[in-house]
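Exercise 7b. Backbone tokens:
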């Protein structure tokens, strides 16, 4: 819509998160259960200027052991810096040691989650619940900011409030302004409320109002970013400084390259889904990275949920999805690639299928 008018078309520009200078305003969001090292590396290779690790509980970080599974959650590849670690919890006292643990692990930024809308998270007074308690939320921000080096950025992830009430809106802006006054470098705002979960559209009008309120403070937008054109539309419509791509990036690292190309002047009509052989190469590399991190047995289970998303780009998506679900080992995985990805051909647009079950 807005992209047809050259004067409204956003262009690639640097994004500063405190001391971090990013090459573009395209970011991969933290995704619970998904944004591990292999997913982040693939996103970076395809043009994400910055990625966030899946959210980690403060209590997990306080007692993290040395098992391969636990250490994998803290693993960082040399090529993916800068990378952020995201924290979630309920008790302000637990956040400082958890933040320091992420710094020790090598993360370049600490992000605090005040946005997760999952019922079990809310029931434990974590994530989006904290938008209802500004005093506790801001105490958490202060504890994290004081715990980590002054040169290391602290950022925040919020939804637009608990619900659509005026009280919820007032509390949102109390936390928003208070967090910046306590030293956060940027805030990501998801355009849905906590009670809305993933139902209905993300409110981009609210994002635009937040950015106008913020002035030169850095605001990133999130919600309904399932294609490169959608990312450009959010930048143009809301004026936010950057976009954080969440569910739209699972099994589709090409979204970062496509957004990058659009920001550099390419026409949206020229953006095509990746061809089948390109999909095969990326699937193989993602699996290789997963095996390297997790070992073959765990990688097989971990990659199944990614492969289901990758299958959406294949023209025979349902058959490919079912074949990946049935795959139990590396031999089965290779058989699926040989059968469905052996010959080249055009891919399909995965933005037609939106999964409402993934936690952001």
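Sequence design result:
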């Amino acid at each position: 819509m807005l992209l047809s008018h050259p004067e409204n078309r956003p262009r690639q520009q640097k994004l500063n998160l405190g001391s971090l200078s990013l090459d573009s305003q395209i970011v991969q969001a933290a995704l619970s259960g998904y944004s591990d090292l292999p997913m982040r590396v693939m996103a970076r290779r395809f043009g994400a200027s910055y990625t966030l690790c899946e959210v980690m509980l403060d209590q997990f970080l306080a007692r993290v052991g040395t098992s391969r599974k636990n250490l994998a959650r803290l693993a960082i590849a040399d090529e993916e810096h800068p990378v952020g670690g995201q924290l979630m919890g309920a008790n302000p006292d637990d956040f400082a040691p958890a933040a320091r643990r992420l710094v020790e692990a090598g993360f370049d930024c600490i992000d605090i989650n005040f946005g997760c809308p999952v019922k079990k998270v809310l029931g434990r007074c974590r994530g989006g619940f904290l938008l209802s308690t500004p005093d506790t939320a801001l105490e958490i921000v202060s504890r994290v900011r004081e715990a980590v080096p002054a040169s290391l950025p602290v950022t925040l992830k919020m939804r637009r409030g608990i619900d659509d009430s005026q009280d919820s809106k007032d509390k949102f802006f109390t936390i928003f302004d208070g967090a910046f006054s306590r030293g956060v470098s940027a805030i990501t705002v998801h355009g849905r409320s906590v009670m809305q979960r993933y139902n209905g559209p993300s409110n981009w009008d609210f994002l635009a109002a937040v950015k106008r309120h913020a002035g030169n403070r850095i605001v990133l937008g999130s919600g309904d970013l399932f294609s490169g054109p959608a990312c450009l539309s959010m930048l143009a419509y809301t004026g936010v400084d950057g976009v954080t791509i969440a569910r739209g990036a699972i099994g589709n690292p090409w979204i970062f390259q496509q957004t990058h190309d659009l920001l550099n002047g390419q026409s949206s009509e020229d953006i095509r889904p990746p061809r089948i052989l390109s999909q095969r190469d990326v699937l193989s590399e993602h699996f290789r990275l997963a095996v390297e991190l997790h070992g073959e047995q765990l990688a097989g289970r971990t990659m199944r949920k990614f492969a289901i998303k990758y299958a959406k780009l294949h023209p025979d998506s349902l058959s490919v999805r079912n074949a990946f679900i049935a795959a139990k080992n590396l031999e089965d995985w290779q058989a699926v690639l040989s059968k469905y990805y052996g010959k080249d051909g055009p891919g399909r647009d995965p933005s037609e299928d939106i999964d409402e079950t993934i936690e952001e």
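Instructor comment: The chain has two domains: 2-270, 276-340. The two ends are 27 Å apart (CA to CA).
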